[in-house]
Amino acid sequence: MIKAKAFFLLCFIVIFTAALFAQEEADNPENSINGEIPLETDWYGELPPLYSMGDKTFTISLGLIFPTLFYENGQYQKLSNMSVIGGAGCLSFNYFLDSNFFIGGEIGGQFNSTIADNMLYIIPIGFRGGCQFLIWKMEIPISLAIGIAPQTYLDFNYLGFFAKGGIATYFRFNPDWSFGLNFSWTWVPQWKQEPKENANGNFINLFFAARYHF
Description:
By secondary structure, the chain is mainly beta. Helices cover 12% and strands 57% of the residues. The protein is elongated.
């Protein structure tokens, strides 16, 4: 009986001492952040979000442009005098509103040659927004960009509109960089005084991209 009482007394002393120590740690201002007690957990069922409001990315993209269908004179047709493949590059900036949604801007440039070796130049400049999904180390953003697109072909200059929708896949190489592929579809119309003379160009873009996170 004496041994049992001594055992329970020892347990009480240990528990009471631990409670006092925990209270002192909680009251210690060095162990708090902005007056709040930091909490640590070993719960692995839910991982913290990779992105939060204020996170930013800067992307450099280079790749190929494939002219597809062009709407002119009331019907869709292939642009027979344009080369099958052109080149392009793009610089884009994203600002995350939360762990998934972002807004930003971009500026790019593309060129396509014709059979006669004449060059068509387009410089899309616009705003962009979208959402991003995470699968393991893969980041999959879906975006839409709209803006202006100055165009030059021989002595013809035109300031028009463009819209581009795309999806990309990036592998997070390290905390600062991710690399991947960007696939998008660009619509570049030319609206004229006579509606029947309007033209609509459609391009498929395939880019290799490097994205910097900060």
